[in-house]
Design brief:
By secondary structure, the chain is α+β, with helices and mostly antiparallel strands. It contains five helices and five strands.
C-alpha cells in the first residue's frame, strides 16, 4: 500500500509489492519520456528489502542535461506527476504524484553527483544488512522526533548518509 499525506513522516514495514509497483511506474515514465531520459532507478528506503520506509516510492530519472527538465513538465503531468516548484532538491528537479503522495520523482543529471550519491547509498544498504538496520533505527528515531516535519526529518538523515558512503568515490 502506498500513500502518505504531504509533509508527514510515518514509516511502515517493507512491502514486497513495492518492487512490482516500481517496475510498473518505470514503464509508464519511460513511455512518457521517450528519448528524453537516459535511465530510471528506484532508490530510497522502499528500494531496500527488509527495512521500514515512508510508503512513497522514490524514483530517479537521469537525463544528460538538467536544462531539458522544463520539457518534462507537460509529459509528466499527463501521467499524474505535478511539478513541485517550491520543493526543489539540490542538483535536481522534483515532481510528486498522488494525494496522499504515492510517488516522488527526482530528475537529475545522469551520472552526476546526485545520481551517483543516491545509487551509492542504495547499493551500500542493499549489500550491508547491518548498515541497513542501523539506518532503519535512525529513521525510526527521526520519525518519532519529526512526525509532522518531513524537511527536518530528511535533513537529519543527511549525516548518516554521508558517513555511510565514501564521498571520494562519487
Amino acid at each position: 500500500m502506498l500513500g502518505l499525506d504531504d509533509g508527514r513522516v510515518f514509516l511502515v514495514g517493507h512491502d514486497p509489492s513495492w518492487v512490482s509497483l516500481y517496475a510498473s511506474e518505470e514503464r509508464l515514465i519511460r513511455s512518457a519520456l521517450q528519448g528524453l531520459l537516459v535511465d530510471v532507478q528506484h532508490f530510497g528506503s522502499t528500494s531496500i528489502p527488509g527495512i521500514r520506509a515512508k510508503p512513497i516510492l522514490d524514483l530517479m530519472v537521469g537525463v544528460r542535461c538538467l536544462s531539458i527538465a522544463d520539457r518534462f513538465r507537460p509529459l509528466l503531468d499527463g501521467i499524474g506527476y505535478e511539478f513541485q516548484a517550491g520543493r526543489q532538491v539540490p542538483g535536481g528537479v522534483f515532481f510528486a504524484k498522488g494525494m496522499p503522495r504515492t510517488h516522488h520523482l527526482h530528475v537529475v543529471e545522469w551520472n552526476g553527483w546526485k545520481w551517483r550519491q543516491n545509487l551509492a547509498f542504495r547499493d551500500r544498504l542493499r549489500s550491508a544488512p547491518c548498515l541497513a538496520r542501523s539506518y532503519e533505527a535512525e529513521k525510526i528515531a527521526l520519525a518519532n522526533r519529526y512526525p509532522g516535519d518531513r524537511a527536518s526529518y530528511t535533513a537529519a538523515k543527511a549525516d548518516f548518509i554521508r558517513r555511510s558512503i565514501d564521498i571520494s568515490t562519487l
